[in-house]
Amino acid sequence: MDCLFCKIIAGDIPCTKVYEDDKILCFKDINPQAEVHALVVPKLHIACANEITDENSAVVAYIFKKIPEIAKLLGVSDYRIINNCGEGAGQTVMHLHFHILSGANLGERLV
Ligand code: 5GP
Ligand code: ZN
Questions:
Q1: CB atoms closer than 10 angstroms to residue 103
Q2: Beta-carbon neighbour count of residue 78 at 10 Å?
Q3: Which of 28, 61, 109, 111 makes the best surface tag, with the fewest CB within 10 Å?
Q4: Cα dist. 102→32, 56, 98 in Å?
């Protein structure tokens, strides 16, 4: 499958890893929009939030369960979680991902 984040998950494209286990990967965004900007992705390919189903939603819950731990690894306690769903909303990589943004001057209209 021609999916950038699947290639990162497979290790075919390098990334700066923050956290990894058998279900999810967190890595630094290549083009940070804040002092801290990481992406959390399920290893299972889910294209976008519209593709979350009864069958795959457990990994989405798991991501949110792990976010506090990931935030600690990032060294932050206050942060914003963003998901863009669909091109019209600014999604450029069609593999479900949650942006974690933090740092000084986090504007209200970031991403
Ligand atoms: P979206 O716009 O789909 O919500 O977010 C995609 C994010 O992926 C963007 O913030 C972009 O900077 C990031 N990104 C795109 N290509 C790469 C890459 O090759 N490596 C990393 N680490 N981030 C990427
Ligand atoms: Zn993918």
A1: 15
A2: 8
A3: 109
A4: 10, 28, 13
Atom of ligand 1 minimally distant from the CA of 93: 3
Query: How close is the Cα of 94 to the center of ligand 2, in Å?
Result: 7
Question: How many residues comprise the chain?
Answer: 111
Q: Give the pLDDT confidence of 27-62 residue by residue, as tens digits.
A: 999 999 999 999 999 999 999 999 999 999 999 999
| Domains along the chain with CATH numbers | 4-102 (3.30.428.10)
Q: Which residue has the tokens 């497979």?
A: 10
Q: Which-ligand-closest: CA of 6?
A: 2
